What we know:
Strand order of the largest sheet of chain A: 8-1-2-10-9
Helix content of chain A: 10-25%
CATH architecture of chain A: Beta Barrel
Number of domains of chain B: 6
Shape of chain A: globular
Low-confidence stretches of chain B: 126-176, 283-295, 305-399, 410-525, 750-761, 942-970
Structural class of chain A: alpha+beta
Number of helices of chain A: 5
Radius of gyration of chain B: 37 Å
Largest sheet of chain A: 5 strands, mixed
Number of strands of chain B: 18
Order of helices and strands of chain A: HEEEEEHHEEEEEHH
Number of strands of chain A: 10
Distance between the termini of chain A: 61 Å
Shape of chain B: elongated
Mean pLDDT of chain A: 77
CATH superfamily of chain A: CheA-289, Domain 4
Mean pLDDT of chain B: 67
Number of helices of chain B: 41
CATH class of chain A: Mainly Beta
Strand content of chain A: 35-45%
Number of domains of chain A: 1
Strand order of the largest sheet of chain B: 10-14-15-13-12-11
Radius of gyration of chain A: 18 Å
Structural class of chain B: alpha+beta
Oligomer: heterodimer
Amino acid sequence: xxxxxxxRETEQVEKEQLIQLVGFMIGKEYFGVDILMVQEIIRSxxxxxxxxxxxxxxxxxxxxxxxxxxxxLRKRLNLLKIKDKENKEKEDIWIIILDVExxxxxxxxxxxxxxLKIQEDSIESPPEIVSAGLKSQYIRGVCKIDKRLLILxxxxxxxxxxxxxxxxxxx
Amino acid sequence: MIDYSMxxxxxxxxxxxxxxxxxDLLQLEVDPExxxxxxxxxxETHSVKGAAEYVGLEKIATLSHHLENLLEILRxxxxxxxxxxxxxxxxARDRMVRxxxxxxxxxxxxxxIEDILKLIHGYSGEDQLPEEKAENSTSVDDTEPEAINLDxxxxxxxxxxxxxxxxxxxxxxxxxxxxLFGIYLxxxxxxxxxxxxxALQLPDADNSEEILDDIVKKIESLRSxxxxxxxESLVNIYxxxxxxxxxxxxxxxxxxxxxxxxxxxxxxxxxxxxxxxKETFSExxxxxxxVHDHISEDTQxxxxxxxxADSTENDEDLDFDDVIQNELDFxxxxxxxxxxxxxxxxxxxxxxxxxxxxQDTDSTFDEGSIQSEKQGISKKDEDIEVxxxxxxxxxxxxxxxxxxxxxxxxxxxxxxxxxxxxxxDEELFSPVDVTHVDPLPDKSFSEPSVQNLDKxxxxxxxxxxxxxxxxxxxxxxxxxxxxxxxxxxxxxxEIPMEKTETEEASEPPEKIIEHRQKSVFGERLVKQTxxxxxxxxxxxxxxxxxxxxxRAWFSQLFNEMRDFQQYLKESMSLDxxxxxxxxxxxxxxxxxxxxxxxxxxELQEGIMKVRMLPISNxxxxxxxxxxxxxxxxxxxxxxxxxxxxxxxxxxxxxxxSDPMVHILRNAVDHGIEPTDERIxxxxxxxGNIILEAYHESNHVVIEIKDDGKGINPxxxxxxxxxxxxxxxxxxxxxxxxxxxxLIMKPGFSTAGKVTHTSxxxxxxxxxxxxxxxxxxxxxxxxxxxxxTQFRIKIxxxxxxIAALMVRVGKDLFTVPxxxxxxxxxxxxxxxxxxxxxxVIYLRNTTxxxxxxxxxxxxxxxxxxxxxxxVVVVSTGMRKVGLVVDSLIGQEEVxxxxxxxxxxxxxxxxxxxILGDGSISLILDVYELVNLTIGNRLRQLGLGTFxxxxxxxGDSEKHSIKKKLxxxxxx
Lengths: 171, 970
């Protein structure tokens, strides 16, 4: 009995644990990524295009001496483009540098909003269809914040090598 | 139990020893009579054994142990070194390599060693029962000066000793001198080695009781001679030993299973008491400037002194000994008075201490200081017994002793003894301390001692090394602490000063020089090496790369500043005074930039040197290869190596190794003719293969030359035509050298006919590709019937390359200079199209063009539509022109890798960061050409595949096929 009570208690504690997310926008969608994965966020740095690479790879950047690939998250996720915004994008971009299992990669997003604290247990498994044609396989979970739906992305999946290579071959 | 923490260390260390062993074995094969080589091999085996035992690797330890026994027999000349034995030694060595390899991969020793052990026993077994006297005459150790000129006496005394002679008093009076000691040692050595070989048989032998009886007899003989020499503690050891054997014999008769390991313990124990013997049983090297030699020198000298100390003669040499003996006695007496009970303690630590102390005693004393001592010390203790030294040492593990010794130090320092004695006392202990504090190389601790203690410091290292490899000392935490306290404080700071004083006071100038030379020599002996994780160096290299980039950045800033200065002068029309300031700033900026550049250059060179290894690391692998290759053929081949000191990046050494094997194998298989054929041609019977390395500006050139039959261009030509590698028109225009180069075409050699007729070129394309991967080039030259020469030219390092910067659109691209043949300017109107491929005519050949803007999908920004720049690059056999917008210039760039998914099949081998922080992609010319061909085919449609490949090289064909197959999979 005691044991059970104890387990329940620890479960409670675990569930109450907060996680911190970095929130960002792509178009009208609201996304989040665990703050522990985020190395830094940079704005407007020259990106060198790599010819013959998949189109979602924007190019490479020089991050203090390291050469880091930059992926356009919108293209990678096949999100719809908002036409009038595209021109602005070039001048005013946000790159979130993430450490995805040791692979430092930059992701271009429209805007980084804020750091959020959410409770671990408020994350729900993704619904079948979210919106804007986003495939549920890239989603770790969703969570409601102020009536908005925050989508937690699974960056390991997004960076899955085989898939990138396949996409490249299709190109 | 295997100590896994030490495993990696062991694998590298053993690997080095085994490599040395291999080259030594090969030398031995050429020169079987050479004792020195045999000694080296023995020493290497021993080192491996020591390390293996320490780490707990049963198989390697056993194998090396048995190998050692066999080598010992060879060394004694009981068996002469035959080819069969060398084969056995080599295969044993290979087995050890295999075992270490397994350790590396699976963390355990997998392969069995029984078969080899059996073979080894087959040889060593023959000599299990050597005759004592024969041994006496054959195994006189030439490193023992005492033993040289007293054969008769030796025989006589040996006989007496062997007969368990009891009338020792008589002899004692006649022959109690150094000669006697030499003889005693020799006898000891023989009997111990005899016992060792016998003991090895024990576990397998049926008649173990008989063997044991035999051994007991021998020990008894030893005991009586020890008694006769007056070595009481030794006598005790022998007694214990015999008791132990008797116990075991009882055990055997009762049918119990018994272990014979104690036999080794005892022999080791005894051997360790005699530095001289220890040397014989472990390292017996004089030639090599290694730590071991230092020890042997020490021990030998010490041996002499100890021997002489025993004698009553009164000549100059004696002083040395007296001094030592006095010091020792001083030590002896005091502790013993208070602590007599501990005398009988015998454990490994004590014995080791004993030895090392002896060595250090010796090394501490140079003649000069002894002479100064001469007057101070009367020759009193004439009846000193050598064994006292060790008995005194037996006390060392007692905590209290240290207090007493400390007191002794104090009192001596206060003037009871001469300063030199104090020094001796303290130094006596310091090396031991170091040894015990940590059996692993502890730099922070041993280094200061090395530097400060000068000569004695060297022996610190020496003894330290000794302990580590020979007999790992069991650690006693209590001792460790106290010792650690004593050493740094008392020894390192004060002593050297005292020493110098005495030296200067007493030594004649020549002696000082001599002494200095010796210590310089000594430093070289203990040359310290550091094993560093390659990653750390890589990261340093990266940092330096950054620095190089910053340097470029500064140069650019300087240029900007100069432009700005010009602008100020012209547009702003500043007056002279204002301009002076600006000019001053520009000048200082330029100076700072130059300075930064110099430092960056030096640093870059320095770091690069860290990664550099002499190419002998690579070349030394090949004598074995040649030997193995020629063994089954009727060919005689001699491999000559030149320029093995040339240094090369370790990474390159690893990567160039296999291609070299290939070339060498070709040279032996197809280049060098069989002996009779050579004789018929009037060539020397033995074929020569010359391996040579040298620097050529920023490159290292490796030449592999054989004086074999050469390559016949006609044969190559015909096969190339037959197989459709090339058209007749093309062939007709080619020089013989170019034709020979055809053997590097992919697939050229795969046709059976080619291999049989020309005999060359098996997989030469792979060789070429490997060399090109290293940004190197491969050239072949041959004179029919005379020689063939392969010339590999590779850059010194992989991380930084010289490159040509080109611009396409607004992007800068980097072309490795190694690939660049030339740059030309063309008119667009000169471009013609052959089967959809743009070409230009360049010096009577067609040069296919690749427009980078086209294949990269970049819109060219060039306004001049008439002319274009073409960078002619060569990818092995094929030359291609890359059409670019403009040429920027030559630069040294640091290669940085791209993410794998960007690098694979992209046509880029990496990227580099330019002075302004922007990124430029480095072209992988080889890939790029393949890629382009793929694109072209796609444009042409797959239907024309057959037709279009006719003019493509085979590599392209391959890659196309590959591409096709991969694309169908997806």
